[in-house]
């Protein structure tokens, strides 16, 4: 196993790879979560890359405690989506333990599936798990599996959530025939690392604070603590993997997604025609984007339903060709909001040099 420690800067892209060290002690033993509406007691994942290149199974186990009625309203169900051409979500099971110690099992009636996007061969299925009989003090314990055909060069485990997490643990069984490594971008503390004789590696973080919403934050996905496992040999030219990958993203983003457009010119003319200094204009554009576009990554399931983010909305959102198609949407993914801001800056200032930062 090899750890890459250097940062690589290519054109507009920064790739940060941080080494893991062995952690001898746990930290934050007095972690207080009482002011939150809910808390994740355990968030565990087992990434099993079996010897066959056509077989990958990821098992998720989550345990959530509900502390207030608002916690039940916001987090009383679990949503996920998948493309059936790439993977299958299966074996969903669990139970709710009530404050008096009694339990209510998940049944098929609590698991709702619907097709939210169908465009030609492209299909997106939404799975919604509604936790039964919830009340303040109840604990949900549930699990599910994702079964893939093959596996990707990089597999990420986000170990920080919108709720505080007492234990986040990911176990990785790599393909023994491939060289691999791990990076831990954004982690406030070093994960504890354990290796077993069965060829698995477990990384554990404890008492992770919630990723909070901030009006002028960087990309939430970039700020979130995560653990990334990667292979060298799935990419034939692995020695130049980062250089080639960053160039590909750079060429795609700057040639198509963030070029000046008519819609951006209209916004600038309507709201910012009297701003004289370039630096002031950039700050005004940033403030405009933050006030008019919202990241879906930090929205609860209830908030998405209230905002009307359904299959029809997502189908339109994901059919964009460049940033000019995104201005009409209020709710987007982090990178799409970044593209909108970059397009506004490129349109307003022809000589501006826009740099986009991604963390892997």
Instruction: Write out the strand line-up for the largest beta sheet, numbering strands in chain order.
Output: 7-6-10-4-3-12-15-14
Helix percent band: 10-25%
Mean pLDDT across every amino acid position: 80
Number of helices: 8
Which stretches of 5+ consecutive residues score pLDDT under 50? 1-28
| Structural class category | alpha+beta
Biggest sheet overview:
8 strands, mixed
The shape is globular
Order of helices and strands: EEEEHEEEEEEEEEEEHEHHHEHHEH
**Overall number of strands:** 18
- Termini separation (Å)? 18 Å
Strand content: 25-35%
Radius of gyration: 22 Å
Keywords:
eight-stranded mixed beta sheet, 360 residues, single chain
How would you describe this protein?
This protein has 360 residues and is α+β, with helices and mostly antiparallel strands. It has 8 helices and 18 strands. It has helices spanning 69-75, 220-223, 241-257, 262-271, 278-292, 301-307, 311-317, 334-348, and strands at residues 8-10, 13-15, 38-49, 56-66, 77-82, 87-97, 103-105, 111-119, 122-130, 139-148, 154-158, 165-173, 180-183, 192-195, 201-208, 226-231, 294-295, 331-332. An 8-stranded mixed beta sheet has the order 7-6-10-4-3-12-15-14, covered by helices on one side. Strands 5-9-8 form a 3-stranded antiparallel beta sheet. Strand 1 (8-10) and strand 2 (13-15) form a beta hairpin. Helix 5 (278-292) runs antiparallel to helix 8. The longest helix has 17 residues, at 241-257. The protein starts with 7 loop residues before the first strand and ends in a 12-residue tail after the last helix.
